[in-house]
Amino acid sequence: MTHLHDHLDAHSDAHLDLPWQLLNSVAAVTDAPLAQIADRLREATVPYVAGSALIIFTEDCTGRPQKKAGDEEIISRVSIAELDALRALVPDEVPWFGEAAVGDRTRPVLALQHPSSRALLILTDPDPAEREECGDRLEVVTYLWGLAARRIHEKVTDAPPSYLAESRAASAERVRVTAELTDLHSTTLETLLAALRSSGLDDATARSTVTDLTAKALIELRTLSDRTTDMVEEPVATAFERLREDLRPLTRFSGIDVEFIEPPLNGRALPGEVGHAARAIVRGLVLAMMEQPAISRIRTQWDCDGENLLINIRDDGSGALSASAPNISRLNRQVEALSGQLRLDVMSGWGADVFVTLPLDPPAAPSGEIAGWNLAARELEVLQLLAAGLRNRAIAVSLGISENTVKFHVRKLFKKLGVGSRTEAIALAHSHGIQ
């Protein structure tokens, strides 16, 4: 008995010596939903390297490439152009200390780039002493950042329905806002150019200088617009090549011949969420087909009719796939999140033929009864994210507003929709095509 007590005491001492703060931080980061990952990562890293704000810049998430936590004055002003410029300075895996423009002001930063995804982590205003003294602590931050970057990549690769719906709403809103800003500033600058070129101005030097500056501003504005478009779209051929690379490890040693039928090179570019969903759906279907007995060949083909991405996957198995199987049902939910369709044709002894249609554009703008709800733009955004299954905190993070503001919008939504609960609001939204 004494020996047992000694053993338990030793076990208890070992238990108390475990680094529970770090282990809890690891668990929080690895379990974080995308909408909360910046908050979780900041909470995890503050004990090791403190800073005024934490910013993640990842093009894996085409809808919301910035994930931010901390000082509102910084995270509300940081721009993609600033983050692009900073990323060019940061080497792979090696922590970078320096000064950079972040949030409309040059400030000290610590930056880390994840080598495989090129995702960027920025901590603003780190303690000056950290650079000289934080060796082990910086290793912990680097480790936690690696976990977060992989979590983001895995979550996007899996493309769950809630992510696809949120990403589509965010992509559409960002393109709309950027287009409006581009039109507004282009008109202003073009008017200014016309005035400065007028023969009524006799100060040639001033006119030349301002003309050059304005022309440069126009170029930068167009570049920003193109950059935004590039982030939310990818050429269909590029998306298909990424699919081929994704499937290579799955098929290399399977003994199954996987045939790829290339899409047209001039096909319309895919919105980011459609490209993510298409790859996840094809991967899932190929895995489901490979689990069948006596299968030797799978063919996957993409096409684009200008309005939809058309996917066809066929196998030569026994025809054992079922539309009601959990793995197929999960894939169908991903398709439905983008208002698409999945059809499975099975012939016993001849194999399965799967057809997937993914619309490239979001559903048409609300009309009819929806227009009669008189929803403000922000209220419609909140309703879309509610319909996608997000809770108030996730909506707040997604839209960059406070949770109390979300609650305010939800109360107004209930009143305008004539409902008394979130469930009723979501059901009504779904019945009108808002998903």
Automatic annotation (TrEMBL):
Signal peptide: none annotated. Residues 369-433 form the HTH luxR-type domain. Transmembrane segments: none annotated. It comes from the Bacteria. This is Helix-turn-helix transcriptional regulator. SMART domains: HTH_LUXR. GO terms for molecular function: DNA binding. The lineage of its organism: Bacteria, Bacillati, Actinomycetota, Actinomycetes, Micrococcales. CDD domains: LuxR_C_like. Pfam families: GerE (PF00196). Keywords: DNA-binding, Transcription, Transcription regulation. InterPro entries: HATPase_C_sf, Sig_transdc_resp-reg_C-effctor, Tscrpt_reg_LuxR_C, WH-like_DNA-bd_sf. SUPFAM superfamilies: ATPase domain of HSP90 chaperone/DNA topoisomerase II/histidine kinase, C-terminal effector domain of the bipartite response regulators. It comes from Flexivirga endophytica. GO terms for biological process: regulation of DNA-templated transcription.
